[in-house]
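Dear Dr. V.,

Thank you for agreeing to look over these. As mentioned in my earlier message, I'm a first-year student in the group and I'm still getting used to reading structure tokens, so any feedback on how I've presented them would be very welcome. I ran two proteins. I've put each sequence directly above its structure. The first is here:
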Amino acid sequence: MNDNSLPDYDENGDDPLSNRAAARRAKRESRRVTGRPASMRRKTPGMAAGGEDSGQSGALPSRESRTPLDERPAQKSRTRKPAGDRLSGERRPERAPVRKRREPMREPEPKRPRQTKARPRIEEEGFELRSQPDGTLHRVKITNKKPGEKTIRARRQVREDPYGPGPGPAIFPSAAPEVGAWRRIERDLRRGAVDDRVGQSAAFLSKTLGAAPRVAVILGTGLSQAASFSGGKSASFSEIPGFPEARTPGHPGIVRSVHVEGEPVIFCEGRVHYYESGSMADAAHAALTFARMGVERLIITTAAGALNSDYALGDVMFVEDHINMMGDNPLFGMNPGSGPAVFLDVTNLYERDVIDDSDRISRRARMRHHVGTLAAMRGPVYETRAERRLLTNMGADAVCMSVVPEAIAGAYAGARVTALALIVNSALDDGGMALTHDAVESEAARHSLALKRLISAVIAR
């Protein structure tokens, strides 16, 4: 072996290459140890108790300085020490485990057999308990009634009403009435009261006016000047027994007897509208009263609003048909089997001869006329734009708040009916002009004398 192949040793006799390798290993080990927590760092035998290396920094101990495994001290046991007194260090005595006291087992109670026999009958004074098939008891009153004998029940006693004097609770018969019987009875009584009112009014007017007229005229709002004929007697609505009182402005509420073309005629200045009392009986009272007095012709007038764009203020429309938008009529609630039949055919309600002769009658009165359909609204408000369009699409030419109840009542009583509608305003959308009752009344009064001539021509034909 050459001398060059031998390793070079330093003055201590160590291999320099091995020392450099050991230094590199120690450097790596130091980096690994410093990156870990203190609790996880591995302590090498070459490190002092304070954490610093006693020899060279970062150098591992030599192989000769390492302690053999058999000479190392035994590691401490990690078992938990028994709990003791922390201050004195004495060990607490162990307690004996507590055993739960077991209760003696009870034997299950034997099931009681279900009673299948009938329960004993418990009798009381005047009553007894009878067993039913389902096992329940029913309390039954003991009577001496024989089989087949009917039980007579005592009538209910009349008790004092806490809200005032009265007959007490009603006692109905054993047989229940059919559905609607009580309502029919109530309507018959009401209809009887209406007939009594009509009879009282007719008797008073016949005695006061002293005439037997064949024609009666009912005037609308602001048209009282059409009754300015000479002669005759008059009576106000408040004087006539059973006659409803008119409260709408433009309706004086007077019944006047005059002569037109040598014939006695009754003029009713004003009317009672349906919207005033909400009663069709009041709205039709005048027509029924005049029919009871023997009137054969009934002429009804009204101040109406135009729905037809061809109509102008001051024109008159002869009504040939109507559309009842009031939701009621004077025959509603009457007994179909009493008096004249309530199934009235209103196809030709308005007198056709007058309509056919309307051209000649209007020329004689010097008025522009039309023949059309009248729509009757309940009122008292005027129609909205949508309602006007609806009525126009339905075929109405003018609209009012009357005429229909009186026309139906007059036809029911057997009178011939003629209806005249004086156009006093336009119900069309004319730029947003407000409709007022004062304007209706003043416009009707302005054309009332022309309507007077027209009524005279209708009566004289």
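The second protein is here, in the same arrangement:
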Amino acid sequence: DVRKKPDSISQCFRDNRLGAELAMQSNLLGDLGFSFFDHDPLDSQNINPILVGEGGCVEIETKSGIKIVLIFGKNIDEQRVCLAYASFDREALTKSTNDEEEVNFLAPESEKKSKLKNQRLADWFYLIPEKDYQNIHSRFSETISRN
């Protein structure tokens, strides 16, 4: 299921402005189980707020350099609220090809595709059945504990 985001939040996601501008919407997002760290805990020089969810997050990185991020918020009526966005990560593309000329050739198309994916994701809160979320969460936890 999906629910429409308010325009101010949708625009932040559409433009991948997920820091300070989105943090101004923290009242609505907080009610859904999302909050902000005031900076990246792994990089104290990066002062831009970071969006987090009480249910954690999953990042999916493709060989084409497209990264899809799922951030999970509250369980409301046996459905987990999820925010999703896509972005282009040139470093991921570089790791998968190891050829700078190929990266330069593929990057513009991959970046264009990531923007299109992000446009599709930007307007919606996704509601995932809690049992499906628990399945994703337990599989992810198993993967981490094995490594």
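From my reading of the second output: The beta strands are 2-4, 34-37, 50-53, 57-61, 66-76, 79-88, 124-129. The longest helix spans residues 100-121. Does that match how you would interpret it?

Kind regards,
E.
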